[in-house]
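Extended Data, panel c. Modelled sequence:
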Amino acid sequence: MALIELTDVTKTFALPHGGAKVAVDGVSLSVEQGECLGIIGESGSGKSTLGRLILRLYDADSGSVVLEGQDIRALSRRELRRHRHRWQIVFQEPYASLNPRLTIGQIVEEPLIVHGGYGGRAARRERVTSTLQEVGLSPDFLDRRPANLSGGQQQRVGIARALVTDPSLVVLDEPTASLDLTIRASTLRMLNRLRESRGLTYVFISHDIETVRHFCSRVVVMHHGRFVEGGTAQQVLDAPVEDYTRNLMAAAMPPIPYRGRAAVLDDLDVSGES
């Protein structure tokens, strides 16, 4: 059974001055346990909206959204909250997603307090420390605040916060877009290692073609809220069928002789250890 099963999902937003925008238009999608699915497309194509619909951070207008056999559109808010710890998200801008008034320890511990069932303060602290170490941050970071961290370290805190409740699914919404190439590759290596060690399923949303090529096993392409093409990363990105995908690829290619991000990611080998 697929971990994620979407059928004919739609979402429309009202515009401030009248009218409406269809952000997701009849999308169907299946993602298997342990898979890393990439969703690509230009800005405004509906990628991030779809990611939020998968987690019911937005309510779909129609269609079904099934996670781990649960039709989450049919769940009450209380029932949904009982499952929330299993389905997490990492946002694009790490600093904006972290409360600047809290320490790193408090930020990562907060989901444990909200969801409950993780023992007392000492047990929670031990779990937070262990999770931070998994993402490459020592216990020295527990009492620091987000403003004292680099962008890469801030994003690792966001990843630790998502992982601390031991989820099965993580939606990664442009998680490396704000990072330089070296830090980006290091973060991707870490995410890949965590996926393998924890048996995670990723939905990786990005406009960065080369990052998706190196990181994802399967890719779907979005345009105006619809899927226009899908398949293995090699099929879609090396031999695109649709004109839209070809144009997307052409726009992403760096000029010669500049080697670009593809060469940097190749050199750093994002499939290896962080």
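Confidence is low (pLDDT under 50) at residues 255-259. This feature is highlighted in the accompanying rendering.
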